[in-house]
Amino acid sequence: MLVLGIESSCDETAAAVVEDGRRALSDVVSSQVAVHARYGGVVPEVASRQHLLSIVPVVEQALQKAEVTMDHIDAVAVTHGPGLVGALMVGVNAAKAIAYARKLPLIGVHHLEAHAYAAWLAYDDPGRDPGFPLVILIASGAHTDLIVMRGHGDYQLVGRTRDDASGEAFDKAARILGLGFPGGPAIQKSAGQRRGEKPMPRAWLHDSLDFSFSGLKTHLLHEAQARGIYPPGDAPADAEAVAQLAGAFQEAVVDVLATKAVQAVERHGARGLVLGGGVSANARLREECARRSPVPVLIPAPRLCTDNGSMVGAAGYYRYMRGIAHGASLDAAPSLAIA
Ligand SMILES: Nc1ncnc2c1ncn2[C@@H]1O[C@H](COP(=O)(O)OP(=O)(O)OP(=O)(O)O)[C@@H](O)[C@H]1O
Ligand SMILES: [Mg+2]
After folding, report:
1. What pTM, to 2 d.p., does this model score?
2. Are residues 281 and 155 in the same domain?
3. Is 185 in the pocket of ligand 1 (CB under 6 A)?
């Protein structure tokens, strides 16, 4: 079964053709990063306009690269929330139009569920699946959630951020350190092998599986001010001092994410740990989760961690297999909850 997956919830316009939920025949992503970089973050109005320009060529390319035509497609899956409402609407309306014109089933997909399903694409041998329950750590630009997945479509949210998302924290930290946008890759690059001379505080929140990153961000701001890194002056900042702060910041975020993910695995008797979302592209997070987890860790390739269409196609396939299909009433749902 071939599913066309469409994603437009934030700043990537993406489409892919996915076979049986596990194999991407194509995966086309048109990133708007360069357009938003000059503003230091994603500007919603600009994002919607870019999606409008890109959506048709991106879908056409996805079909071409998969060497199929619309005649071969069995269903259309689209992210309908959560995300930026104007951005979501572009993908949802494109998917609706295709489904209506081709008389295909239309499946709305939750964006975080899609991030989780990137693991099904990355590990496409069903014989080696660890089995349920799984703990899913979604660490992305707008979310940091721990989810227990007891089966396809069966989710329980067991931890979430109480303030900033981890990706948002990386982005803000990079801005403080003058490292540019998006912040995660910039912090990782600046830190290199450094873990920081002075450790930064971790918000453990007692034995809760929730997260908090805003205190860490404020701590970084004070350290950057004390070293004359922030606000930026006329002379360039001392690159080694910046790298030390980047390293200490990265370690603090990674330590909290990995510790709580492993705690969730232990508390809920999970048979595997799945990482998803842009922050799971972070090399130190991947390393620490793999090192500390008592169960197999499934981490998609960095390219599949950030937004893409194939994860939507995969999640859509498993929804369809459970008999879920939406009609023309499918709408963008900017605050859609997963559980
Ligand atoms: N190597 C990295 N280390 C840390 N963070 C990273 C890395 N690569 C990307 N990120 C972060 O990932 C985030 C983008 O991830 P993603 O595209 O999944 O988020 P989003 O789609 O904007 O948000 P959401 O999925 O919550 O709606 C950014 O905040 C970026 O800084
Ligand atoms: Mg995302």
Report:
1. 0.95
2. yes
3. yes
